[in-house]
């Protein structure tokens, strides 16, 4: 008769690939925040993650690919958080969903400001087009088009309006860091009010 210990399945000696990948990305993110992208080396990343350098190069050809992966993860988490807030509103209430977009965008950016700045402001990124920004713009555009379909507002240039809202929100959050007279809750409501005026509902 086998003992209880003999019936316990053996533990894997290595971590699953997705866990190892997350650990590498988390280590890189920590170092990019504390040291900056340019100053961080691959050797420091693998030492922080506790893996061999060969493991790093199995997933990423260079630091640039880690940065791209971290940006993609940041954008996905940001969009998911904002979408969750909008989906908590009635599907036929475009104005409530716009308020939710404004408030959740402000909160999400402020909660992850250090990560955001390390991934974007610390490395040349403000080009004429990039996938991460376009993904957020697409979410705003979908919100605006939903409002048009519901009769909440009318738009001749929905994508241009989405760009104004995205960049306006982003600039306002950046300014909030140095503006001691405005809370993030106030800013979300103020943005919603201004954007509704832009949409002819103010």
TrEMBL record:
TM stretches of this protein:
none
Q: Does the keyword Disulfide bond apply?
A: no
Matching entries from PROSITE patterns are given as: HTH_TETR_1, HTH_TETR_2
Recorded GO molecular functions are:
DNA-binding transcription factor activity; transcription cis-regulatory region binding
Residue ranges of the DNA-binding region? 41-60
Q: Where is the HTH tetR-type domain?
A: 18-78
Query: What does the UniProt keyword field contain?
Result: Coiled coil, DNA-binding
Q: Does this UniProt record's set of keywords contain Transmembrane helix?
A: no
Alphabetized SUPFAM superfamilies for the sequence:
Homeodomain-like (SSF46689), Tetracyclin repressor-like, C-terminal domain (SSF48498)
Which InterPro entries does this one have? DNA-bd_HTH_TetR-type_CS, Homeodomain-like_sf, HTH-type_TetR-like_transc_reg, HTH_TetR, Tet_transcr_reg_TetR-rel_C_sf
PANTHER family annotated for this entry?
HTH-TYPE TRANSCRIPTIONAL REGULATOR RUTR, NUCLEOID OCCLUSION FACTOR SLMA
**This protein's name:** TetR family transcriptional regulator
């Amino acid at each position: 008769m086998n003992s209880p210990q003999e019936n316990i399945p053996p533990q894997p000696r290595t971590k699953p690939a997705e866990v190892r990948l997350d650990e590498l990305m988390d280590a890189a993110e920590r170092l990019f925040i504390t040291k900056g992208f340019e100053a961080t080396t691959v050797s420091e990343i693998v030492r922080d993650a506790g893996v061999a350098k060969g493991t790093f190069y199995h997933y990423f050809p260079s630091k640039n690919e880690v940065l791209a992966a971290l940006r993609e993860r940041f954008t996905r988490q940001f969009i998911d958080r904002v979408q969750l807030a909008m989906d908590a509103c009635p599907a036929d209430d475009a104005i409530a969903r716009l308020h939710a977009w404004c408030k959740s965008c402000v909160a999400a950016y402020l909660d992850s400001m250090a990560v955001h700045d390390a991934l974007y402001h610390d490395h040349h990124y403000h080009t004429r087009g990039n996938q991460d920004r376009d993904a957020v713009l697409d979410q705003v555009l979908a919100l605006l088009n939903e409002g048009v379909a519901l009769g909440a507002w009318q738009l001749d240039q929905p994508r241009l309006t989405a760009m104004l809202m995205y960049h306006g929100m982003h600039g306002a959050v950046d300014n909030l860091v140095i503006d001691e007279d405005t809370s993030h809750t106030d800013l979300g409501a103020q943005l919603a009010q201004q954007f509704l005026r832009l949409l002819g509902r103010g």
